[in-house]
Model the fold of this input.
Amino acid sequence: MKGKTDPVILPAGKLAPKLLEQFLRRLPTDGPEVLVGPGVGEDAAVLVSTAETVVVTTDPVTFVSDAPVAWLVQINVNDIAAMGARPRYLALMALFPEGRTSAPGVESMFEELAEVCRRLGIIVIGGHTEVTPAVNHPVLVCIMLGEAPRDHIHRSADARVGDAILLAGWAAHEGSAIIARERPAEARRLLGEDGARAVAAWADFPNLLVMDAALTLAGRPGVHALHDATESGVAGAVREVMRASGCGCVLRQEEIPVRPEAVRLCRHFGLDWRGVIASGLLVATVAPDQAEEARRALSEKGISCALAGKVIAKGLLLETPTGTVELPDFPVDEITRLPV
Done:
């Protein structure tokens, strides 16, 4: 349908019913458990679930991106998966700026949503779309539901003293991609044309997902806490797990999985890679007698991972090549210090 939609700028208010119906036909909305799905005039979804637990999360995307829907879906999928659940349903609220929103632009968003959800097996169950003077650029908010057996649920608060800290994925992963995209000329000078392009692609769908790692670990013997790293990076994510669990940790910096390109980019811009946003990295704590088996299970699926520390009773410590120090605290993500 691309190229056939009238490129007229849309007026303020809800999308016209005929236009909305056209866009909704693109989405994966059917399933035997969906009694009422998205449709003009329907104000809520109705689902039938036989799952033992239903996990719910919500997150927005409030910045401009070349793939905002894929970004939005990934960060919400990570929240569901890091609880040990499989993402199943999605409702989307999309607010578009008045005077600058065209039908093809909204259509492109629906196409992106359809592609991403189909690849992840997620059913779109509803939402809201509106053109409004209240926003200056598109604001997307997702509500996502997942399902899991009760014994697959893993909270950040479930870490236990003695657990090994298992990191799956890469530190500073998302932040490095943001730097490469926002500072392409400098990234090319540092990493070369191919290297800069590769780092920028770290944020492409599905590279920010922790779903495979989380679902590999969910329900395994000895796996306790699961948590996905986002703002404030690997250091922030480990701190959050320890704070939620009332424990301390010893994290070994040399064992943290981080790509040299990420370290190089962060150093060039004066950022500490340990506190740079790290979507795509999963923090897990695992009983010491099961930790190697958990690491092997991830490795067999091609997921980069490392046993990088242990949970202790108190204290947040980082072992570095020059000695043991307090684990750095990043109240604000390091990426915010990227020079404008």
